[in-house]
Amino acid sequence: MYPSSCDTFVALPPSTEGQRIIFGKNSDRPCDEVQEVVYFPSRDYGAEEKVECTYIEIEQVVHTYAVVLSKPAWLWGAEMGANEHQVCIGNEAVWGRESADGDEALLGMDLVRLGLERADTAEKAVDVITELLGKYGQGGSCMEDECGFTYHNSFLISDRKEAWLLETSGKHWAAERVEGGYRNISNQYGITTKIDKEHPEMREYARSKGWWDGKSEFNFATVYSFTTTARIEASGSRYCEGKKLLEKSNGHITAETMMDILRDKDSGINMEGTFMTTGSMVSVIPTNPDLPGVHYFTATPDPESSVFKPFIFVKYAKDLKETTSPSYGPDDPVKKKPRFRSKPDRKHGLFVKHEVMAAIIDTYKDRGQKIIENMRQLEKAKMTEMEKFLSDGIEEPDFLVNLFSSSIQEEMATYSKS
């Protein structure tokens, strides 16, 4: 299967309006896959405890941070998410010279979740991910299917002050710090000669393989990419279109700007077809540590016909039941070997309601347009409400413990009205 998925964006001052960092990502996955949005509070663990990731078990840490994640419902890891320290991470599939057909190990999506659970800054997330990559490796099917769809990963990671681009090839990697402006990634290597951190053997490995002569300036993308770029042509087009859309609003990038980019179908960023946008995320992170970050998630396919709903980290935030898929525990076909012999129903409550509404939108033009207008009005009202917290802070956090869930109830009410 050829690369055809995912775009991640970050904009930092002076590209944004106000002293804010705007993070955005579309998760483009198989069209029949359900993406859930889940919240896990911070937790303490015993010294010998383990954590069971999608395919392998690894050592747990003493403390994990609270996280909100948008994730394919069948696996442990996440496509994208944020933590209580306002670290945001999204990952992309990348293919290069190194084979991705290794044994089951950590998925890139596992590494997203582990990075969020264990790091309170973007740079620390780079360190967490690369340390785990070196210890356990990356590998295993990235689809709930026997076809064995595998890839390496790149990550865009941000916090309140900067962003990092991390690109991997097997256990080797390079990372670049982004301190201002904007950056977007698609399914291709993008780190060139500016490398701020790297695997200690990354250059020597490339030289030993004959990919680099050891004398010319080292360019990570050139050295580790395919000799022909035909396989990543689609992602290259989306990358260029995404960059143009960011440039168009440079200096004035807001959450609305990012949502518009994620909804853009002409560019291919809002993907349709066998692979489609199954979930979207936009985060607004003030550089002022006294102000909260606001994290918007759709939890439904196609952002054009979805509502971005806000989540804010507060002490007693509640579970997100309406967007949590059914759990099958040890009986889940993913856990049984051979894996993926069947697919259980993973649709969560919001997904079921949205699926009906999406069919109406597709079938009845005028009625569909009215539904989308109502959804946009709700979204705009929520963003106006969130602006108060982004500018002034939170005086009564207990009122926000059900923010995401109450927004879902309002979304479902617009379905009923329509």
Can you describe this structure?
- Belongs to the peptidase C69 family. Secernin subfamily.
- One of its GO terms (biological process) is proteolysis.
- Residues 324-344 are annotated as: Disordered.
- GO terms for molecular function: cysteine-type exopeptidase activity; dipeptidase activity.
- This is Secernin 3.
- By secondary structure, this protein is of the alpha+beta class.
- The protein has one domain: Penicillin V Acylase, Chain A.
- 29% of the residues lie in helices and 23% in strands.
- The protein contains 9 helices and 18 strands.
- The chain has helices spanning 108-118, 122-136, 202-208, 220-224, 233-248, 255-262, 349-363, 365-392, 403-417; strands spanning 7-12, 20-30, 35-40, 43-44, 50-52, 57-59, 63-64, 67-72, 80-83, 88-94, 152-158, 163-169, 172-178, 181-185, 197-198, 275-286, 294-297, 309-311.
- The protein has an 8-stranded antiparallel β-sheet, with helices on one face. The protein has a 6-stranded antiparallel β-sheet with strand order 14-1-2-16-17-18.
- The radius of gyration is 20 Å and the shape is globular.
- The two termini are 39 Å apart.
- The relative contact order is 0.15.
- Residues 228-232 have low confidence and may be disordered.
